[in-house]
Amino acid sequence: LIAHADDRTQNAPQVTELVDSEDNAPLFQGVRWPAPVTAKPRTKATSKRDLHALYAAVYAEPDSDGPREVLADALQEINDPRGEFIALQLREHRGDTSDAVRGRARELCAKYGKMWLGPLRTITYRAEMRRGFLQRLELAGSWSSSKWAELAEEPMLATVEELSRGQATEKIYAAFLAGAIAKTVRSIEVFGPEVWNVVSTTPMPRLDHLANTWWGRRLDPNERFKT
Questions:
Q1: Half-sphere exposure of 190 (CA within 13 A, CB side)
Q2: How do residues 40-55 score in pLDDT, each as one tens digit?
Q3: What backbone phi and psi angles, to 5 degrees, belong to 115?
Q4: Beta-carbon-side half-sphere exposure of residue 120 (alpha carbons within 13 Å)
């Protein structure tokens, strides 16, 4: 869990329901992590172009672990801590985990998580990583509104399955939801007419969870879903 990605939000109200009691527990302590096994060097050093292609492969197949495993290997070969983090979270996803594995992953996320958000850091209030990549995104406030349109098309949004309002206005959330994330998002919030307009007019092929706090008793939800 990456809390307050934009440091200007660090004094904002807490959203306690985002984390459960296990997440609120102190980081696992007292484990000396074994030195990684030295991988056989490649005949050709991994270049930035190679890594760009490997990241693109992950974004092209967000449901597949294969591209993530390949990227994790490549990053570990150049001693990039993101590689170890991806590998650890993939182990946890497969059920091959322990307190030590989870603790080490939390340690890496606490140290490097904000950096791994890349350009999305300025519009992130909180975020959650799963399988080594951004899985839940809670939007920050509107002070970075000049960049919302550009960042709404950021390729790394392909791994985001849950989009939460966070501190964003309805207008910003709606505009962001209409961007690239519409192709892959599974869980969203509807809290006003602008958001509903996006939901009812934008293809969202993977959407399977809609949290509504707006319709109330004024409108018939069944009629809305028929539309």
A1: 17
A2: 455 455 677 799 999 9
A3: -65, -40
A4: 28
Residue 220 is encoded by which pair of tokens? 């018939």
HEC secondary structure over 167-181: CCCHHHHHHHHCCHH
Residue linked to tokens 């340690």: 107
Q: Determine the Cα angle at 153 with ends 89 and 192, to 5°.
A: 95
Secondary structure (3-state) at 59: helix
Q: Rounded distance, CA 132 to CA 159, Å?
A: 10
Residue 19 pLDDT: 42
Query: Which residues of the chain, if any, have pLDDT below 50?
Result: 15-34, 37-40, 43
Q: Are 129 and 2 in contact (CB under 8 A)?
A: yes
Quickly list DSSP for 37-55. Answer: PPPPPPSSPPPHHHHHHHH
Q: pLDDT, tens digit, for every residue of 198-220? A: 999 999 999 999 888 776 666 67
CA distance 96 to 73: 18
- Encoding tokens for residue 169? 């206005």
**Predicted pLDDT of residue 27:** 36
User: Cα 195–201–204 angle (5° rounding)?
Assistant: 85
Q: Enter the pTM of the model.
A: 0.77
Q: What's the sign of the alpha-carbon dihedral 153, 182, 168, 161?
A: negative
- Which stretches of the chain are DSSP H helices? 48-60, 66-77, 81-94, 99-116, 148-151, 170-177, 193-201, 221-226
The pLDDT value recorded for residue 142 is 64
d(CA 162, CA 171): 18
Structure tokens at 108: 């890496």
